[in-house]
Specification:
230 residues; Gyrase A, domain 2; 2,3-Dihydroxybiphenyl 1,2-Dioxygenase, domain 1; six-stranded mixed beta sheet; four-stranded antiparallel beta sheet; 28% helix
């Protein structure tokens, strides 16, 4: 099993034509379906295509209108050549059902595939991290258990939590914000929609890695992509 660490650009290039997208250490796609039973059939076919070696890399969220498929290495919390191979195998298996993998970018579905993180600004990360770990029932990210490292939902349902170091108190600014990691080709539309809905662009200095947006009362959110990070 090839566990070589690929760059973000290599991962994205390898799966984009399959209608998978690389977001936040995961490759993810959606399969539109007509029923929960059909979603279950997609899941069964994907599991069979992944095989015993690939089951640990694959997670599936089943709904009545779609099956959302995600791949990443549990050992590295990243995408390796093995997961790229699995994406090819699973896409081929889905097509045998007369269905398709679809990242749903550009407003072609309910929304594109994405992942959400909660970012917490703190003066003393080590002091607050145990509280968030306990209150959320979360655990350490694979290979990262330090006093300032991110926290993840062991059931894979809730958003990850990461901590951002503050140098001084900021009583007039919110200190918890959402990071919405979207496909690189979805970001322009998502930002435009947020601005059209009354939002403000606070900064694009780090784009295309992330854009900082705020609602009408100054509450912040970041739209992020893999680009600009390698």
């Amino acid at each position: 099993m090839n566990q070589k660490r690929l760059s973000r650009r290599e991962i994205s290039a390898a799966v984009t034509d399959l209608s998978w997208r690389f977001v936040l250490g995961v490759v993810r796609t959606s399969v539109p379906v007509a029923s929960l039973a059909q979603a279950a059939a997609v899941a069964a076919r994907a599991v069979a295509a992944a095989g015993a070696d690939g089951e640990g890399s694959l997670s599936i969220d089943l709904r009545g209108d779609r099956a959302i498929l995600s791949l990443h290495s549990p050992a590295t919390a990243w995408v390796t050549p093995f997961e790229i191979e699995l994406a090819h195998r699973i896409s081929a298996a889905v097509s045998e059902l007369g269905l398709r993998t679809d990242a749903e970018v550009g407003g072609q579905g309910q929304r594109s595939v994405q992942l959400v993180e909660i970012a917490i600004d703190a003066l003393d990360i080590a002091a607050i991290r145990p509280f968030w770990k306990a209150v959320m029932g979360y655990g350490d990210e694979a290979g990262r258990s330090g006093a300032e490292d991110p926290l993840v939902d062991p059931a894979g349902q809730g958003p990850a939590i990461w901590f951002q170091q503050m140098e001084a108190p900021r009583p007039q600014r919110n200190r918890i914000h959402l990071d919405i990691s979207v496909p690189h080709d979805e970001a322009p539309q998502r930002i435009k929609a947020a601005l059209d809905a009354g939002g403000t662009l606070l900064s694009d200095a780090a784009a295309p890695a992330f854009w900082v947006l705020a609602d009408a009362e100054g509450n912040e959110a970041c739209v992020t992509t893999w680009q600009g990070r390698d």
